[in-house]
Specification:
4-stranded mixed β-sheet; 183 residues; elongated; 8 helices; Glutaredoxin; Peroxidase, domain 1; 14% strand; alpha+beta
């Protein structure tokens, strides 16, 4: 919990500077690229997080990241600061919080939508329209598959969950039977 609060403070600080420079999108992309690299190369992340490695080695790793992504001075200093303050482990949370701040400013909302099978394009567009009406914002869908929901759709938008899955309907039916409400 404390780590999330700290990470959000870093994200907000970076976002404030990015907004002043008009570089919100560029910084969001850099953060996402670095996160993707860390996912694909866990040894790099381990090196940055390891308490056994001296700070100068971690700084060399960060310098290579800065070169690889041609980061400007602000972003470079931000990553160096995270290493110096031993906050580099918060980078994923910082990136998510940064993205959320940017999307909020753009009037966007991210919806994570789970279905048992791939969603056809026409249904995807209809769902986007329905969720846009519901939230009053442009919706960015992140589609996931989960065969455990059996059928239907489960959508997560911020703290809101819309569960129209067959699994939840069956669970409700089971609970009704257990309470003796049917019959």
């Amino acid at each position: 919990m404390i780590s999330t609060i700290v990470a959000k403070r870093y994200a907000k600080a970076l976002y404030t500077v990015a907004k002043e420079e008009g570089r919100q999108e560029a910084y969001a992309k850099i953060l996402e690229s670095v996160i993707q690299l860390l996912k694909e190369s866990p040894e790099i992340e381990e090196a940055l997080l390891s308490p056994m490695l001296p700070p100068d080695v971690k700084h060399k790793v960060v310098e290579e990241l800065i070169k690889a992504y041609a980061m400007d001075e602000i972003m470079a200093n931000f990553l160096k600061l995270l290493v110096e303050r031993r906050r580099i482990g918060y980078l994923r949370i910082i990136a998510e919080a940064f993205r959320s701040l940017w999307e909020e400013e753009m009037g966007l909302v991210r919806a994570i939508v789970c279905t048992a099978i791939p969603m056809p394009e026409d249904l995807k567009q209809k769902l986007e329209e329905v969720l846009k009406e519901l939230t009053g914002k442009k919706v960015v869908l992140e589609l996931r598959q989960d065969p455990d929901i059996i059928g239907g759709v489960v959508a997560h938008i911020g703290d809101m969950v819309l569960d129209g899955s067959i699994r939840s309907q069956l669970q409700g039916f089971k609970e009704s039977i257990g309470r003796g409400e049917l019959g």
